[in-house]
Amino acid sequence: MGYGLPSKQTVNAVEGRLRARDVRVGCRLWTVDGQRTVPTTVTAVATARAREVMDVVTDSVSFTVAPDQMLGTPDGWVHARDATGTVLAWTHARKLCRTRLTIKPGYELGYLIGANCADGTVGRNYVSLVVNDEAFASRYAACLTAVTGLPARLEAVTRPSGYLQRDVPGLRVRVVSSYLADLMRQYVGGDAHHMRQRFPRVVLRDRETFEGFLDGYTDGDGFRSKRWAGRVLVSGNVAFLSDLAQVLGARFTPRTNGLASHLVVVDGWSSRGAFKAERHPLQLRESCWTQVHEVRLRTTVNKPFTLYSYRLDPRPGFLVNGHLARQPW
Q1: One domain, residues 242 and 302
Q2: Positions in the chain short of pLDDT 70
Q3: What is the C-alpha R_g of the chain?
Q4: Is residue 255 part of a domain?
Q5: Both 137 and 160 in a single domain?
Q6: Residue closest to 108 by CA, chosen among 211, 31, 200
Q7: Which of 71, 161, 181, 239 has the most CB atoms within 10 Å of its CB?
Q8: pLDDT of residue 166
Q9: What is the CATH number for 132?
C-alpha cells in the first residue's frame, strides 16, 4: 500500500489537530464539500509500512504523505508523487474551529451590506459601524442580528472630527466574527476598503434585498432630496457607482475635480425595467486553490514509516494541514 500519512503528520479534526496515529474510529475530520468545509466521520483505520514518503510544498504550508496518496485538484484526484505544478483544494486550517453563520436573505441583508459599503469598517476579525445618528446605528444593529443571529448593541464612543478639529461623540456597533468579516470581503470582491470595494452583486438576488441595500447606503453616504422623489448616493469610488448605475439603468457622470461623485436614484427607477435578479452564494466560500511548488521524495533505510489511512462516511475526503486528500477508491 503506497498511500496514507506518516504517524506524526497532523490532520484537521473537528476537535482540533490530531496526529495521524491518534485518529480513531468515530473521530470527526474536516473535509470540503463544494466550497464549504463540513465534518465527516472515520469508520475504519488501516496501517502499513513504507520506506518512502513525499513532502509536498505549497503556497500555504508543507505536509507529508505517501507517494500514492490522492490529493484534490480542479481536474480530479492526483497521486502526491505527480502533484508538482498542480493546484490543490485548500482551506485556511486555523479558521476551521470558528462559528459558521447561517445568513438570512431579505431586506435586512441588503441594508447591512449597503450600510457597510457606505460607512462600515471590516477588520481582520470584526465588522463595525461608527456614526452620529442613533436611529441609523439602531437600524444597522437590528439588521445585523436579524441576518446573522449575532447579538449587536450600541456603544457610546468619541471620534476625531477633521472639520471641527476636536473629538465628537458618536455611536458604535461592533461585532467580533472573522466569518462575518471574511463574508463581507467576499461580497465586495475581496477588499473592503471604501475606495477599492466593488459593487456587491449579491444584493441583486431579489428586489427586496436590493431595496434594503439602497436604504442602507443612503443612510450612510447619501440623502433623500427635499425637492423631488428620490435620493442621491455619494462616493469617491467611481467604479462602484458606475456598476450601480448600470443596475439601475441610470445615467452617471463621475466628477473629475477630485471630489466625490453623485448618483441620482429616483424612486421610480424600477419602471425602467433594468433590474435583473442574479444568483450569488450567500454563504462564505471556504475553499480555494493553492499552488504546489515542489514534491520531495524522502526515504528511510533503517526504521520504515508507519502509514495511516482512513475510511470515512458520508464523505471520503479529509483535510491534511488544510489540503484535501482521500484514500483511493
Answers
A1: no
A2: 1
A3: 25
A4: yes
A5: yes
A6: 211
A7: 71
A8: 83
A9: 3.10.28.10
Same domain for 322 and 236? no
Q: Which residues pair with 215 in a beta bridge?
A: none
- Does residue 289 lie within any of the structural domains? no
Q: How many residues does the chain have?
A: 329
Grid coordinates given for 317: 475526503
> Given the C-alpha cell 480513531, which residue does it identify?
24
Measure the CA–CA gap between 197 and 253, rounded to whole angstroms.
19
249 with 187, same domain: the answer is yes
The angle, 0 to 180 degrees and rounded to 10, between the axes of the packed helices 107-119 and 178-187 is 80
> What residues have CB less than 8 Å from 183, skipping those under 6 apart?
101, 103, 283, 284
Residue 142 has which C-alpha cell? 437590528
pTM score = 0.90
Interhelix angle 107-119/207-221, nearest 10 degrees? 30
pLDDT value of residue 317: 96
Phi-psi region of 69 (alpha: psi -120 to 50; beta: other; left: phi over 0): beta
Per-residue pLDDT reduced to its tens digit, 56-81: 999 979 999 999 999 999 999 999 99
Whether 87 and 123 share a structural domain: no
* pLDDT for position 158: 86
Helix, strand, coil share (%) of the chain residues, nearest 5: 25, 40, 35
Are the C-beta atoms of 284 and 295 separated by less than 8 Å?
A: no
State the pLDDT at residue 1: 54
Place of cell 441594508: 111
279: in domain: no
Answer whether residue 258 is part of any domain.
yes
Structural domain boundaries, residue 151: 107-272
- Per the structure, how many domains does the chain have? 2
At CA 193, angle to CA 187 and CA 194, rounded to 5?
90
**CA–CA gap between residue 113 and residue 144 (Å, rounded):** 9
Q: What is the pLDDT of residue 167?
A: 83
Q: How many CB atoms lie within 10 A of CB 105?
A: 14
Q: Which helix (H) or strand (E) holds 247?
A: helix 238-248
